[in-house]
Design brief:
The structure holds two protein chains of two kinds. Chain A contains two helices and four strands; from the N terminus they run ββαβαβ. Chain A is of the alpha/beta class. Chain A has a domain at 39-102. The N and C termini of chain A lie far apart (57 Å). Helices cover 35% and strands 16% of the residues of chain B. In chain B, the strands form four sheets. In chain B, strands 6, 7, 8, 9, 12, 13 and 14 form a seven-stranded mixed β-sheet that branches. In chain B, strands 1-2 form a two-stranded parallel sheet. In chain B, strand 4 and strand 5 form a beta hairpin. The radius of gyration of chain B is 24 Å and the shape is globular. Chain B starts with a helix and ends in a 10-residue tail after the last helix. The chains are: A alpha/beta, B alpha/beta. Chains A and B meet through strand 1, strand 2, helix 1 and strand 4 of A and helix 1, strand 1, helix 2, strand 2 and helix 3 of B. Strand 4 of chain A pairs parallel with strand 1 (14-19) of chain B.
């Protein structure tokens, strides 16, 4: 008499294959923030703007020569590059040295 | 997260701030975009916080890390991130007895926690008899990991869920619904993963409802019917194992949702006084379809009277703020309302006009979440003025289901922007009648006591 423990099942994988994603490196940092323009990229999360404002204020005190430029992604859960404002975003990006983005979540 | 990757892709260094509870999610998102080295600073700034002191405390604790992430030279690994070794895909993944197979799958994170039917070659071959599409046919790549949604992978997950081969056309159409769901806030890519714990809700219309014995009567939302139970379960496994959406990593639902186990009903077209949902969407009555929305909350209420005014007032009283409103009327209640001249469209219009809330209540919330496109926040409407909660009747769905009695059900949450993809025709194989005849008699027969 057999039982469940005697029966061997050879089973197929339910996990889908996926094409490998090309891996890219991040960009080199600037060694000193003095005199630089930092971009503040604000998404639609409720806490994003107040968080970036606090960061802006703290960094202004620490680095008096740093300037800031804001950009708002105003569409929830939609990448800025998928939106009609992508050109505006790319132009904004050209004018800053580094970006702080907020907030997840 | 994707925006931060886009910033890096445009040759600007970026630092992303995220709540520490979302560190795994952030890592998964940046990795899926091919940038595993994205500098993410986990902070204790509370999610969605409105308390300045809490935000300041979180920022202050993270500030040095932010500065370091902006200025610290790249490490060797950051300069040349390694392509991670991924497990070579194999068809036969394991061999063992029932308990061993279940434990193996569970440890891999491939189940919903309930036992699964082992997807053997034989079982999958039988499942594939439910479609004429070849096993290697690719429907598309499903978010979030862009897993390849082949017919065979759908069949494997269907076997695991305990589905019958005749459910394959429904599962294929359901997968197409996910694949073609609009991108962005109102689609699967939000509702599948969001903190809001939205659950896929599948409504089946057309002749296939009866051919598959999909419950539309008493206890329409309750367990006990193999089609309602396993179609939703299979779709959940497809989202998990093909889409790669895992709880606590990609699916960041705060509370989670028991409706994610399965949420499938048929509309009771035979007892409905109105045109069925798929006909509203332009399909023929003889077509079979599956529609998709993402409710978060399920509630039921008992209208104080059986006349249309009492029923509709009860509906209005029980509508909270959300994005999509699905109202399920039982057949008797539907007939009572219809008798007084209400069509589905008139019901939607009535609710939209009568469900009013103080402007201040809406203004306090995000406009996008309350009513996409609303400009209330910027308008001059007085706080005390009563304004419609629902701006567009097309955000309301009316369907008929459930058994005898008075209760009305609401499914409240999310769904497609009106006019965008939410319903898919179910295509049947040529030998459909034979298949139905083979599996249709699988129904519970209760003994009397």
């Amino acid at each position: 008499m057999s039982s469940n423990t005697d029966i061997a099942y050879e089973v197929l994988s339910p996990w889908a294959e996926a094409d490998p994603v090309p891996i890219r490196a991040i960009n080199a940092r600037i060694s000193d923030l003095s005199g630089k323009k930092l971009g503040l990229f604000c998404n639609t999360k409720r806490v994003a703007e107040p968080t970036l404002k606090v960061i802006e204020n703290r960094l202004k005190k620490k680095y008096t020569s740093v300037t800031f430029s804001w950009f708002y992604n105003t569409v929830p859960n939609e990448a800025i590059m998928e939106q009609p404002r992508k050109d505006e975003f790319e132009n904004w990006l050209k004018g800053v040295d580094e970006v702080i983005a907020a907030y997840g979540d | 997260m994707y925006d931060a990757v886009s910033i890096e892709d445009r040759q600007k260094p970026a630092v992303m701030l995220a709540n520490y509870g979302f560190a795994n999610d952030a890592e998964s998102a940046s990795r899926s975009k091919g940038m595993p080295g994205l500098r993410v600073i986990p902070t204790k700034v509370p999610c969605e916080s409105t308390v300045k002191a809490d935000i300041e405390a979180g920022v202050d604790e993270a500030l040095n890390d932010v500065i370091t992430a902006l200025t610290k030279p790249l490490t060797t690994e950051e300069k040349s991130p390694k392509v991670e070794k991924t497990e070579k895909p194999v068809r036969i993944i394991f061999k063992g007895n029932l308990e061993e197979v279940n434990r193996f799958f569970y440890r891999r994170g491939w189940t919903d926690g309930l036992p699964i039917i082992p997807p053997t070659e034989e079982a999958v071959v039988e499942m594939l008899t439910g479609t004429e599409l070849p096993a290697d046919h690719l429907l598309g790549k499903l978010q979030s990991r862009l897993g390849k949604a082949t017919i065979e992978k759908i069949a494997i997950n269907a076997v695991m869920a305990g589905a019958l081969p005749t459910y394959m056309p429904v599962l294929i159409a359901g997968t197409i619904n996910l694949l073609e769901s609009e991108q962005g806030f109102m689609g699967y890519t939000t509702f599948g993963f969001s903190t809001g714990s939205w659950a896929p809700f599948w409504v089946i219309n057309g002749p296939i409802r009866n051919q598959l014995n999909i419950n539309n009567g008493s206890g329409v939302f309750s367990p006990g019917n193999i089609a309602n139970a396993t179609i939703g379960r299979a779709m959940g496994l497809i989202i998990k194992n093909i889409g790669g959406v895992r709880k606590g990593i990609e699916d960041m639902g705060v509370m989670g949702n028991p409706m994610k186990y399965t949420m499938v009903i048929a509309e009771n077209e035979e007892e409905s006084p109105w045109e069925p949902l798929h006909v509203e969407h332009g399909f023929k009555k003889e077509d079979s379809t599956i529609s998709l929305s993402f409710p978060q909350t399920f509630l039921q209420h008992y209208p104080p009277g059986s006349d249309a005014a009492s029923i509709l007032q009860s509906v209005i009283d029980n509508i909270p703020r959300s994005m999509r409103y699905i109202i399920v009327f039982n057949p008797a209640t539907a007939r009572s309302i219809a008798r007084e001249g209400y069509t589905k469209e008139k019901i939607k219009k009535y609710i939209t006009e009568k469900k009013l809330v103080p402007a201040a209540q809406l203004r306090a919330q995000s406009n996008a979440i309350v009513t996409p496109g609303s400009k209330l926040q910027q308008s001059s409407v007085d706080d005390a003025e009563m304004v419609p909660l629902i701006k567009d009747p097309r955000f309301i769905r009316v369907i008929v289901g459930g058994g005898p009695g008075a209760f009305v059900a609401h499914l409240i949450g999310g769904g497609a922007t009106p006019g965008k993809k939410e319903i898919q025709k179910i295509e049947l194989p040529k030998n459909w009648d034979k298949l139905v005849a083979k599996y249709k008699n699988l129904v519970p027969v209760y003994t009397k006591y």
